Amino acid sequence: MQISSEVTNGKATLKLNGRFDFHSHRDFRTAYEEIIETAGVREVIINFSNVDYLDSSALGMLLLLREKAEAAGKSVSLTGLQGMVKQVLEIANFGKLFSVNG
Questions:
Q1: What 8-state DSSP symbol labels residue 56?
Q2: How far, in whole angstroms, is CA 18 from its chain's centroid?
Q3: Helix 25-36 / helix 56-71 crossing angle, nearest 10 deg
Q4: What are residue 77's phi and psi, to 5 degrees?
Q5: Alpha carbons 17 and 95: distance in angstroms, whole number
Q6: Structural domain of 54
Q7: How confident is the model at residue 101 (pLDDT cuts 50, 70, 90)?
Q8: Which terminal residue of the chain has fewer beta carbons within 10 Å of its beta carbon, N or C?
Q9: Please, which residues have CB within 8 angstroms of residue 96's CB and are 6 or more apart in sequence?
Q10: Facing residues of 37 across strands?
Q11: Euclidean distance between the first and final Cα of the chain, in Å?
């Protein structure tokens, strides 16, 4: 999986591309830890528009991100959900844990 990041007006967007699975955990953690440590960022947006697969370890990584972000006073939202990725997150009730924007 490839991850690109962009920070604009207090919002940091992590754009994911490819399969979000166990093999992505180190890259994902490195990307979000850098953003959480960035002063001035109030919201972390995870963009799934180019993700075609995620597994249970990805769900765990999102929960860890949420925990660390909340501890740092930041919110997390998910965007660009579609297809199987959207179904998995809906089944896991992630809409109750995260702000979901499409």
A1: H
A2: 13
A3: 20
A4: -130, 155
A5: 21
A6: 2-101
A7: confident
A8: C
A9: none
A10: none
A11: 21
